[in-house]
Design brief:
The complex is a heterodimer of chains A (about 400) and B (about 230). Chain A is an alpha+beta fold. Chain A contains 15 helices and 11 strands. Chain A starts with a helix and ends with a helix. By secondary structure, chain B is an alpha/beta fold. Chain B contains 7 helices and 10 strands. In chain B, strands 6-7-8-3-9-10 form a 6-stranded mixed sheet, sandwiched between helices. A 4-stranded antiparallel sheet of chain B has the order 2-1-4-5, with no helix packed on it. In chain B, a hairpin with a 2-residue loop joins strand 1 and strand 2. Chain B starts with a strand and ends in a 7-residue tail after the last strand. Classes of the chains: A alpha+beta (about 400), B alpha/beta (about 230). Chains A and B meet through helix 1, helix 12, helix 13 and helix 15 of A and helix 2, strand 6 and helix 3 of B.
Chain lengths: ~400, ~230
């Protein structure tokens, strides 16, 4: 027999009160856990999608526009290639991949195509769709979404690194539409502005501007076009969370004479979704704190009144006021743990069961939330118990002994 | 002198003014005595008993326990004295309803943080002493009134107290059971030398004491030490 057992036996003796006492905390914790579990998976899913889309930040010349970048007119402005190094040597966090490129519209016979100079390794790292068909072995490196680092494997072993990662000076990659238009096949020859290239690979159809482009090594294109050490744009794969935490501003600080923009719709939707989820959770947290504390306080108050006789007995046989105080705080901790545990289980089950139906996502239990649930529910429970337990300790023992 | 009370007064505020539950009470109790406190209802018997070790805070006066003044001791100091030295037996048994017989008896030891095996050993011993060794897993509601009072006696004895304070211990019992309980108290006093201070309105129970304190309107009207110690 010890003080814990006395508390435990008393709780077991009043099971219905125990359940009603922790119900508000349980339900509140369950709702928060469910929202957070769904929200976490949702964030990861969006982050994964975002990463799979490739670059989400564009560094453009100050006077240039996104249209200039896409149309690649002959007089489109450029920025120094040295900016890539400036970003790489900075202390900015959240830049997962950099892919500088120089684009210019060129004529091949009667056809006008966009020649794009790339750093092959960087480019492929930022193009999941290219990786997906076996153009390279590198996985996407997405620091903000570790679960997105799924291995894409090599579907085309022949092209593993040798073919594309280290694109030869005389090699080029042809976009799907360009290849179709120019009847290009792998290893066929292509003459661009007097220089002959071997088509190392026909790129898969992506549905993007890349389908209408021919890609060659950046230095080769710079030489060919007579624009050494310049690039049209730097595509950056930025970590989504880092963007929301001000990555763009940090980039602007080190590249003041550039225009830096994001694939804003995707990013802002993600940020808004995250913020909404966080706000909903915060609102619930505030509600659960007050409702849970009041509910627990109400339960404890009733419990104190009901237990006046027992408190009198305990005081009679040697329990001090502080022991009585401890008994009620211990009970609050027990109840808090019970509420937190059941709330976590219910919330996780709700997320796992309802997630696929309501949000179209598969939710996995987040074990870290169990710790937070327990801490939160114990705090709520203690907050509601402080005053009743103080009153319990002050109860006049002899009056209640005589009522016994 | 195990207990010495000097000018003990307890006042209550009432609509009509101050009410004296105890008024300038002075007496002393020798170690090993069997003290009975008698008097009509409202005379302050229970107030006196519960004032001795802090369950009621007196308005004024001094109380000494083993020569040490305890009337100005803190709540935790008084709780520690009750825990180690005092056993209580109440008219309504004062058992915790959701604890079994043995658990009820072990509570004082649990408060003293005595280890579990020792608790069980001592509780079993005292339950055997009161003849309840076959009722250790029973809840209070599963016991008769006489058995419940014997559990209360066992609980009062389990921590080897030097004083037992009994407030109308036979008040809820029929005459036969009353004699049985009084017999236990007598045995405890005689064989273990434990001082017993018992509040009673029963002349039969009062006859068990060798020191008689009679109260009337909160005042000590009689304090008699008998030569004959026990009545059969």
């Amino acid at each position: 027999m010890n003080i814990y057992k006395i508390v435990w036996l008393e709780l077991l003796n009043r099971k219905s009160q125990l359940i009603s006492g922790v119900l508000a905390i349980t339900l509140g914790i369950a709702v928060i856990v469910a929202i957070q579990s769904v929200s976490k998976v949702s964030k990861e899913n969006v982050a994964k999608k975002l990463d799979n889309l490739g670059a989400n930040i564009l560094v453009l010349p100050q006077g240039g526009s996104i249209d200039d970048y896409y149309t690649s007119d002959i007089d489109a402005p450029t920025i120094p290639e040295e900016y890539v190094e400036r970003i790489l040597t900075s202390t900015i966090q959240g830049v997962d991949n950099l892919s500088p490129k120089l684009t210019r519209r060129v004529k091949i016979g009667e056809n006008s195509i966009v020649l794009t100079g790339i750093l092959p390794k960087s480019e492929i790292a930022s193009k999941p769709l290219w990786q997906g068909v076996g153009l390279a072995g590198d996985e996407i490196i997405a620091a903000c979404a570790p679960s997105a680092n799924q291995s894409l494997g090599y579907k085309d072993e022949k092209l593993q690194r040798k073919g594309v990662d280290t694109l030869q000076q005389s090699d080029c990659l042809a976009g799907f539409q360009v290849a179709k238009k120019l009847n290009l096949t792998e290893n066929s020859k292509l003459n661009i502005s007097g220089r002959e290239f071997r088509v190392a690979k026909i790129l898969p159809e992506t549905g993007t501007v890349d389908d209408d482009r021919v890609f060659a090594h950046l230095t080769v294109v710079q030489d060919l076009l007579g624009i050494p050490d310049q690039v049209s744009a730097i595509e950056i794969m930025g970590c989504c969370n880092a963007i929301s935490e001000g990555l763009l501003g940090k980039l602007r600080n080190i590249l003041p004479d550039t225009r830096i923009t994001t694939i804003s719709q995707i990013v802002s939707t993600q940020i808004e979704t995250n913020q909404l989820m966080n706000k909903v959770s915060l609102v619930f947290l505030i509600i659960i704190f007050f409702v849970g504390s009041v509910s627990m306080g109400n339960f404890m108050w009733a419990n104190v009144n009901e237990r006046k006789k027992e408190i009198g007995i305990l005081r009679m046989i040697g329990a001090s006021k502080s022991t009585v105080y401890q008994l009620f705080l211990l009970k609050a901790i027990f109840l808090g743990i019970s509420g937190g545990l059941t709330g976590y289980i219910l919330g996780t089950l709700a997320g796992v069961i309802l997630g696929p139906y309501l949000a179209g996502i598969f939710v996995q239990p987040v074990y870290m939330y169990l710790l937070w649930s327990l801490i939160l529910s114990v705090i709520i429970s203690l907050a509601g118990t402080i005053i009743p337990s103080y009153m319990a300790a002050k109860i006049d023992p002899h009056t209640n002994l005589q009522e016994a | 002198m195990i207990i010495k009370v000097e000018n003990l007064t307890k006042q209550y505020k009432h609509n009509d003014g101050l009410v004296y539950a105890l008024n300038d009470i002075t007496f002393a109790v020798e170690k090993g005595s069997f003290v009975t406190i008698t008097g009509p209802s409202g005379s302050g018997k229970s107030t006196l008993l519960l004032s001795l070790f802090g369950l009621i805070k007196p308005t004024s006066g001094k109380i000494f326990f083993n020569g040490q003044q305890i009337s100005d001791a803190s709540d935790s100091e008084l709780a520690a004295i009750r825990q180690k030295h005092i056993g209580f037996i109440m008219q309504n048994f004062a058992l915790i309803p959701y604890l079994t017989t043995i658990q009820n008896v072990m509570v004082p030891l649990a408060l003293e943080k005595i280890e579990k095996k020792e608790q069980e050993k001592r509780a079993t011993e005292v339950l055997k002493f009161v003849g309840l060794e076959d009722r250790i897993t029973h809840l209070p509601r599963e016991l008769s009134t006489g058995q419940q009072q014997r559990v209360a006696i066992a609980r009062a004895l389990v921590h080897h107290p030097s004083i037992i304070l009994a407030d109308e211990p036979t008040g809820n019992l029929d005459p036969a059971l009353s004699l049985e309980i009084l017999g236990y108290l007598k045995k405890i006093n005689q064989s273990q030398g434990i001082t017993v201070i018992m509040v009673t309105h029963s002349p039969i129970a009062a006859a068990y004491g060798n020191v008689k304190i009679h109260l009337h309107d909160g005042q000590l009207s009689e304090h008699k030490v008998k030569e004959t110690v026990y009545v059969a």
